[in-house]
Amino acid sequence: MVDMTNSVWRTRALISRSALAQNITAIRRFSKSAKLYAVVKANAYGHGVAQLAECDSIVDGFAVATIEEGTELRQMISDTTPIMVLSEFNHRNQIPLYQQHCLQIVIHHVEQLDWLESYKIANNDSRLAAWIKFDTGMNRLGFSVESADSFIRRYRNLECIEHCGIMSHLASADEPGHDQTRSQFELFSQLQRFPFPLMSLSNSAGVLTLDCLEKSLVRPGILLYGASPIAKYQKHFTPVMTLQSRLIDIKNVKPGDTVGYGGTWTASKAGKIGVVACGYADGYPRLASNRGQVFVNTKIARVLGRVSMDTMVVDLSNHHAVARGDIVELWGKHISIGSVAEWSETIPYELFCKVGARVPRIAVA
Question: Which of the listed residues 51, 94, 171, 200 has the most CB atoms within 10 Å of its CB?
Fold first, then answer.
């Protein structure tokens, strides 16, 4: 990875190793004795999967969305570290890929059981590791709990499979006390009657609000990156990503001057503005136009006018000691990702995932 900590740069995402380690420690406090699979799909929620691979020694495994993500991650970590592929088992021809790269399958419909029943393990091949997933109320992927006996019977009889455990996924755990979460937990608890090594239900919000089931495995995503899905727990977690840019120009405006495409902001008095080398192509949301804030040289600055593809404009009228090249924090320690998400009418997950490919992810202490 290119070292851009001190060189000339335009926009960058600093990824803090220490914050990541602190968040994993905090997750373990909440999840007690449960195993922890770090969810690193979508390039580790935009943080760079290479950075998350470095925490191999302090997690029990990883979870990704696709085989391609799994094979990329496998090149970075040991063959013995589990990698669960959450939602891509779409054809029998994919089975050898799972086997070759030691990826864990998630079984969630009958045809997948058919494929695995007909699959023959060669003498020198190890068995495939697989989970069986049940739908406890999200109505997305998974077998019905009411039909668990028949599906688990077939799953247990698969000769090619090493049984990992039973899993499901929570729909509304980020709303504490939600009836749906209680219902899902109770339904999932019924599956404890089947003796499997692990049971996995909790996502990040579940880690914070649910007592872990015996022999459980949690699958945190957004918590790893220091953003809590439930605001009152944010104090326990530290932002891993700091998105920074630079001032590339500073100019004065007079009353009546407009800024940006469409002239959606008009100066009511004389002032000073700064042009920031970051736009929606870098991942800063256009919906934060005229609403967002950034941090420049110890002070907050408002976003003026429309965020464009490569640049945005901020109000520097109250900033007396600024110069071209000064660092601008878009989100991180001083501007929370939650605030940017609120200004943009979205969630931190989406903002992280939309950080542009041209923005370098730089590991820092």
Answer: 200
